[in-house]
Amino acid sequence: MSQYGAKGRAQAGHDYKKILKYYYKVDVKIQDGFPSKIKVSGHGEMDFQKYLYGLAEMPSDWPSDALKAQAIAGRTYAYSYAKAGKTICITESCQVFSKSKSDNPPSAWKKAVDDTKSMILNNPTNSQYSSTTGGYLNQSGWDVSGKWPQDSYEKKAGSPWFYKAWYTQTYRDNSSTCGRSTPWLNKEEMADIVNAWKVWRKG
Questions:
Q1: What percent of the chain clears pLDDT 90, i.e. is strictly above it?
Q2: Rounded mean pLDDT, 120-140
Q3: Can you tell me the distance from the alpha carbon of 83 to that of 32, in angstroms, rounded to the nearest whole number?
Q4: Domain count, the chain
Q5: Which domain holds residue 51?
Q6: Helix, strand, coil content of the chain in percent (nearest 5)
Q7: pLDDT, tens only, 41-92
């Protein structure tokens, strides 16, 4: 899931189930017998819901459906750790966790977590997510509502990394494109790569 894409879709009126369905290609389900505890690196065993309150992955002032989508994606990711009895880390390598946020969660984020309690993705290929993808995801395709790039949901949501993730030099749309009109290789550049590979193969 693209988090900025989820924000853009929520702003366009998509509910959290539709957002998750687009990115993960599966529905949401209520998981019976949900683990009550999870092992968190540096914090020992915690109440699962309280752990989710501390996820510092999305600004709490974003649309409620984006927050709910994030809560379910985050819960699904953590569920696999809790189910296996593994310890989940608290950095970007797993999910960013803040103990202070867990102790005093913003009301909008707490509501998103509470409103989706025990909800997870129904057997997704994975439950990974990131801030910005550059507008294209292997599983979902182009994340746009119309024409590219002006109708990209990430661009509409104001992702500061949208153009950087694409091909410009800095984080602004008027940044240098290094003399290119697209990020794709031209025929000559591709031919150079193929020829170099052939030479390497022949030794």
A1: 66
A2: 85
A3: 12
A4: 2
A5: 3-121
A6: 40, 15, 45
A7: 999 999 999 999 999 999 999 999 999 999 999 999 999 999 999 999 999 9
Residue 131 in any domain: the answer is no
Identify the pLDDT of residue 184: 67
Residue identified by tokens 């129904």 is 122
pLDDT at 171 over 60: no
Q: What phi and psi, each to the nearest 5 degrees, are found at residue 28?
A: -100, 145
Asked if 43 and 16 sit in the same domain, the reply is yes
Angle between helices 3-11 and 64-84 (to 10 degrees): 140
In the block, residue with structure tokens 């290789």:
185
The pTM of this model reads 0.81
**CA angle centred on 124, ends 86 and 46, rounded to 5°:** 30
**Strand intervals (E) in 62-185:** 87-88, 119-121, 136-137, 141-142
Please tell me whether residues 145 and 95 are part of one structural domain: no
Cα–Cα distance between 61 and 49 in angstroms, integer?
20
What is the identity of the amino acid at 41? S
Question: Which positions ≥6 away from 87 have C-beta within 8 Å?
Answer: 39, 40, 41, 81
- For residue 97, what are the β-bridge partners? 55
